[in-house]
Amino acid sequence: MLTMRRLICLSMAGLILAAAGIVVTPETDTASAAPTGTEPSGFSVTLITGDRVIVSGNRDLAKVLDVVPGKGRTGMSFRHRTENGDEYVFPEDAVALVNAKKVDRRLFDVSLLLRSGYDDRSRTTLPLILGGQTSAPGLTAATALSSVDGSASTLDKADAAGFWKRVADPRAKTLTTGVHRIWLDGQVKAVLDRSVPQIGAPEAWKAGRTGAGVTVAVLDSGIDPGHPDLAGAVVGAHDFTGSASGTADRFGHGTHVAGVVTGDGAASGGRYVGVAPDATLLNGKVLGDNGQGLESWIIAGMEWAVQQGAQVVNMSLGGFVTHGAEDLMSATVDRLTEQSGTLFVVAAGNAGPGAGTVASPGTAERALTVGAVDGADAMADFSSRGPTSPGGALKPDVTAPGVGIVSALAEGSLFARAYPAVDGRYVSLSGTSMATPHVAGAAAILAGGHPGWKAPELKASLMGTAVTNDGASVFAQGAGRIDVAAAAKRPVFVTPSTVDDRTVAWPHTDDQPIDTALTYRNDGDTAVPLHLEAHVRDPAGHAAPAGMFAVPTADITVPAHGTATAHLVADPRVNGPDGQYQGYVVATGGDTVVRTPVALNREVESYDVTVAVIGPDGVPVTDRELIGVSFANVDTGVSGSPAGSTVRLPKGTYFVISSLTIGADPEWRYVTGAEPSYTVDGSKTFVFDARKGRPIGFRLDRPGAALAGSANIGYFRTVAGQVWSDESIGRPERYTVVPSQTSAPAGQFTYRVAAMAGRADGKGGFSGSPYAYAIEWKHDRNVPDDLTPRLRDSEFARVEHRIANSGPDQEAWLAAVGPLTTPAGITELRTPELPWQSAVGLFRAGEGPGDADLQTVYFPLDATYRRGQVVVKCWNSGVFGPGLAPHPVYSPFLVRDGAYIGFGVPLFGDRSGADRIGYSRPDTARLVLFKDGRQLGESTYDSDAFQVPDDPGTYRLEANVTRTNASYSTRLSTAWTFASSRVDAGTLPALAVRFAPTLDDHNLARTGAATYPVTVQQQAGATYGNLTTLTVEVSYDDGQTWRPATVHGTGLNRTVAVHHPAGTRFVSLRATAADDRGTAVTETIIRAYGLR
Q1: Where in the sequence is the active site (predicted)?
Q2: With the C-alpha atoms ordered 523, 524, 526, 532, is the resulting torsion angle positive or negative?
Q3: Measured between alpha carbons, how far is 658 from 605 in angstroms, rounded to an integer?
Q4: For 23-34, how does the pLDDT look when each residue is reduced to its tens digit (9 = 90+)?
Q5: Domain spans of the chain, in order of start
Q6: How far apart are the C-alpha atoms of 310 and 13, rounded to whole Å?
Q7: Do the strands 797-803 and 870-875 form a parallel or antiparallel pair, or are they unpaired?
Q8: Which of 234, 336, 503, 1022 has its CA 20 to 30 A from that of 960?
Q9: What string of DSSP letters covers 610-677?
């Protein structure tokens, strides 16, 4: 469920460097299962190094705001870059290990970690796969994985910095303590009556081919063995997820898949029968009850399936496209296939129709990877397409029906609640998950008829007899839609089953013909004559030029129980357009048709670019792990980095990012640079000369002003219509920047430096400074020669901050500025016309950002100021209570998402409740949810989500919290009343009563009569009626007795008149507000403010 259990200041210092401002995110102790609509949008992600990355947005579209060094890593610098739409953050002491492929680069893919649910709100551990020694403090070893000579482990994020210090040796670019590799244990998920006849299964049944004697392992979310269609089918089961439900299917996906493989149709009178109704099943539960799992579970499941003797393994699951990271699951598929002969049938994924979207483990070379078609054999739009990324291999291999597939419905599963049943015991689903078991069942039919066949023969037979769709490319359909009837009766198949010649380098005048031997094998009793033709298309879809693809010996005869060989000769010297060629070699003879997919990339005009890096001492740098140089074509987005010293690039204009790490830990220094428009029009050498690096900074008006804390140095370039970026975050004195030699068109490239400046205290901060600069400086088109521009105070907006005191020994931080002993004031000069969010955090004296003891934090809304504008901002002035200001990151605060109601109302907003929200660390918290007077749920956290019934009703949510980190609002009791019924998603109506008494900078009011504003705040995005009730009561004995106060006015904005008696110390308030639609709130605030 949604939790915000421990408010921790993840970062105050440095977060103002992002124009988007500051985010302080709550952490949780356990995984979250709440719907995403109920979650606040701010996140943090702890890396394996212990550093925390602060992001805004949501799991699918996140923006990195800042990075907070882990324990003992103060001063660490970071590289932040965007690649293929994902945001990466690399600590400098990890770069060399990533470059040396000792550490999985996915561990620093913040976007991937968020999508996988590995953020700090969702879990307090990081799942890893370690090669070699796997015991270390902070690690919990879970599962031995013999195929990778290691084990799956979990790393406690609280121990991550210490673990990294023990195992990583960045100077030697190696790992220590017996660990030789570290991978992310990535997230894997399920990839979601006419289909069986569509692939010819009934015809195979007539010939006695039903899969009898063949065992298919279904690695999925479990199987419901009690389903009538699967009675007696499961002969072995094992749970790899640790689920309380064991091998049972509480999700529903695995049962549906199993029914497609081997369901006998008992519950439908034989209507919904699987492909191989007499095959037996191994139930390997590798996906949890939410349909998700870890790579280590899948790898362990694959090893188990092979050990149990499965001839075919169905994997209707997939991870994410790897984008250059090592693909451990695919490597395991290939290794186990080679060792055992087991055929792994794997879903291509549902990320189509774009190219390069096939996910692991569907990218495995030896896997039979399956795309999806509809009932008319047209490609399903969602079906993932090849080529693989990276590698450019031809995938998927085949297709099968995957649209509207009716199969077994697991009783009591999530699918049973979420989808309408078909004929009581079935459900209709679409996806490559549904296509894959059609192929696994077909493989079982073939294996039953050919006991000696292993993975190569099964794969070749199914591919060679597939039916192609002329309107689809080989990178969409592979060999085509399987035809098991043809595979079962046609004895001839060919190896290799695919001719994938990958890339032939430009220019093509000196190319050599590529001769591929095609060996046709005949397991029948009669010789089969074949006529071979190559049908290949050029990049535009036209027939390839004559002579480019030829079969010199077009007619062969394959003897009974023998082989015959023909040759496909591809000659890229033949004049034709450059680019991707694709098609088939088709062998025909009587009723025999054998197709072999063919692909060849005739490289477009491209050149070798040699990368030379010169160090500050003028000596060429040969240690490649300390160098970072990447190229991205600004028109196509094609990118590359040198393997060694050379990179191959198509002709064009490139955005080039360069970096060099020098020195030694912990005093690393860095040289960075960017070329916005580097031209590749021939073989050449790209030189990055660190001697040309210059310090960064600003010449400012105020005496003693200097950069301190962290700076953000960024390069932003429009590449193929999207902005690609590279940013370095760290202490500015450690960086030098090399000016550009090229320029981009106006508006296509930005060099940006964002930093704090003030009267430096010599410790990297601004302690005692009466002023601070919040600077974001940009330069268009290139990196200029002048990297220390002159900025006048008159160019900034000026914000005068006043921070009141709300407790003893209290210090405040304004973004990176602090500590400030409260009450405090400071002048901030901000770059104008930018949406700043300078948050204020309160700490116990002597502690601050990076420490766990954050007392309270205030998140403002975006504020944009004009040049020369002067603004006064007051902070931490009471009354502190619930607030509903529509914050761009955290709201809405009370929502309905299907079967859940989520609550995350900020309970401790200060007086200025219209432009900010406030959270405070509670000592105790209790939430209780009622529907129509009946209690539905309870939580001991100040934010959570509750599962609720579908029917409409009146809800009451009570929140009771206490805190001792402040002298005021020490006890809050609030009850919200609202109506709700099941909707897809929606903001619920919620009210809050806000008080604004006149208080001094210690939150004290005068005794005697007082009248001050009282406002009813409504959560934006919901529907409200007319306010019918607003009452206020006051107490001077901490709520033991109450007396009514007089409320004046109408509407949402009114005033309340009270009398503060002499001799009392605190004022407590109780208010009730309600409208004529039944929405109401009652708030009780003990010690709302003090008296003097």
Answers
A1: 220, 253, 433
A2: negative
A3: 24
A4: 222 222 222 222
A5: 41-185, 189-464, 499-504+507-602, 622-790, 894-1091
A6: 56
A7: parallel
A8: 1022
A9: EEEEE-TTSPBP--GGGEEEEEEETTT--EE--BTTEEEEESEEEEEEEEEEEEETTEEEEEEEEEEE
374 an active-site residue? no
Q: pLDDT tens digit string along 266-283?
A: 999 999 999 999 999 999
The pLDDT tens digits of the residues spanning 97-118 come to 888 888 999 999 999 998 888 9
Asked if the model's pLDDT at residue 490 lies above 60, the reply is: yes
How long, in residues, is the chain?
A: 1092
Nearest 5°: phi and psi at 1027?
-70, 120
The number of helix segments (H) and strand segments (E) in the chain equals 13, 71
The pLDDT of 569-584, averaged and rounded, is 95
Q: pTM for this one?
A: 0.79
Unique residue bearing structure tokens 């009270």? 1058
Q: Of the given ranges (607-621, 699-713, 929-943), which has the lowest mean pLDDT?
A: 699-713
Q: Pick the more confident residue, 794 or 117.
A: 794
Q: Return the closest-CA partner of residue 423 out of 254, 197, 193.
A: 193
pLDDT at 10: 29
**Exactly one of 220, 229, 397, 523 is catalytic; which is it?**
220
* pLDDT above 50: residue 208: yes
List, in sequence order, the alpha helices (H) in 358-495. 414-418, 432-449, 455-464, 474-477, 484-489
Fold entry, domain 499-504+507-602:
Immunoglobulin-like (2.60.40)
Note the maximum CA span of the chain: 112
The one catalytic residue in 77, 239, 243, 253 is: 253
At 595 the pLDDT is: 96
**Residue found under tokens 């309160």:** 842
Rounded Cα distance, 44 and 64, in Å: 9
Buried b or exposed e, range 624-655, using 16+ CB within 10 angstroms: bbbbbbbbbbbeeebbbebeebebbbbebbbb
Domains 189-464 and 499-504+507-602 share a fold: no
CB atoms within 10 A of CB 389: 18
Query: Residue 36: what pLDDT?
Result: 26
Residues 831, 791: contact at Cβ < 8 Å? no
Q: Regarding beta strands 292-294 and 667-680, do their DSSP bridges make them parallel or antiparallel, or are they unpaired?
A: unpaired
Q: Would you state the pLDDT for residue 230? A: 97
> How many other CB atoms sit within 10 Å of the CB of residue 61?
11
| Helical residues (DSSP H) of 249-345, grouped into ranges | 253-262, 295-307, 328-340
643 CB contacts (<8 Å, ≥6 apart)? Answer: none
Question: 47 vs 391, which has greater pLDDT?
Answer: 47
Mean pLDDT of the 337-361 span: 93
Separation CA 379–CA 809 (nearest Å): 67
Cα–Cα distances (Å) from 299 to 97, 133, 251, in that order, read 24, 18, 20
pLDDT digits (tens, 9 = 90+) for 949-1001: 888 999 999 999 999 999 999 999 999 999 998 775 689 999 999 999 999 99
Cβ contacts of 873 within 8 Å, gap of 6 or more: 799, 800, 801, 802, 912
Is 1059 labeled as catalytic in the residue annotation? no
pLDDT at 739: 98
Please list the residues that pair with 663 across neighbouring strands.
Answer: 668
Instruction: Give the span between the Cα atoms of 1088 and 1066, in whole angstroms.
Output: 7
Residue ranges of alpha helices (H) inside 131-234 are 160-167, 195-198, 201-206
Four-residue CA torsion sign, 1028, 1034, 1035, 1038: positive
| pLDDT, mean over the chain | 89
Q: Please give the CATH superfamily to which domain 189-464 belongs.
A: Peptidase S8/S53 domain (3.40.50.200)
Please, which pLDDT band fits residue 819 given cuts at 50, 70 and 90? confident
Rg (CA), the chain: 33
Query: Which one of 195, 433, 497, 939 is the catalytic residue?
Result: 433
| Joined tokens for residue 355 | 């190219």
Q: What is the pLDDT of residue 271?
A: 93
